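Hi L.,

As promised, ABC transporter substrate-binding protein:
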Amino acid sequence: MGQEFGQDLAMLLGRQGTRRHLLGAGALGAGSLLAATLAGRGAARAAVPEVVLCNWGGDAVPAFTKAFVEPYEKRTGGRMVIDGSGPTNGKMRAMVEANAVRWDLCDSGVTGLAELAGRNLLAPIDYGVVSKADVVPEFAYECGVCNYMFSSVMAWDKQRVPGTPTLADFFDLKKFPGKRMIRKNSQAMLEMALLADGVPREKLYPLDVKRGLDKLASIRDALLTWDTGAQSQSLLRDGEAVMGWLWHTRAFLLGRETQGRIAWNFQDGVLQPGLWVVPRGNPAGRQAMVAIASMQEPPGQVSLLESMSNGPANPKASALVPPELREADPGSPANAAAQVKISADWYREHYGDSYRQFIDMISA
């Protein structure tokens, strides 16, 4: 099903050399994690259970360490380690079904929730410990809670598309000739197609999948698709597409490296959550919820925005965001107001079917 946002961001940070520094005691690579787990848990070394957080590796490890691990360890006296091997849905499912869970927290998303929660593979979030007041209300789910925010947005080549195009312009091949680019996934692409077709934001869900697919099919011969963030960046930078829908992190980088030739904005974008999920049967038990509550603190979330361009999940963090970062913060009040918030509840019920229909449409 292609690359997820967290995977792409880890690759992007590593390629750009962002915030490179030695990992401290709070962060472990995949190889050393097993030894630490056996030594730490096997010896029952502390009263506070060790928490193992799995993310997508690369420079996301030191970024998470500074933003989340260090404050948690100071606050609780416990220990948190990071496994950067990548919490794919397949790995989480295999661990839970084999009663061999090694992770307590995973950096997941809407797709993870859709594929795993319905199979009873995720523990419910304990909102007696985790504060619903410290997260955007729409992104607090039964088995997942927002850890950061990102967006799917439209970008365009200013040399071939003058002015500021709308989503409707994306489908007007006479007004703006040239190829269009979308993600090879139904998530967010259906929403943007329906918005372009005139569906009001407040009436977007439940998604009219057929209407969205028909809208995309109307320009199928002009569509290029991307599986990875790097592909989306290349297609626009190299001029293969004149407009495209992609993650805001890649759009931001494109604007910078093309000196403004590639423009973008948050207007009619899709605001999406990264999600903390807890595999059912996690070794640290309730301590995973304590860790999530700690990571809701605004300073750590602003640190993640500074290092990774991920928008804070806690609305209270907005006051701490430096002025120079607000324009690119997908969850800032002004940027959030220009977008629609994705519904993980809808995708939990319909992701499999909508994805298959989407692939059938673009492959026809």
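The first strand starts at residue 51 and ends at 54.

Thanks again for sending the construct details.

K.
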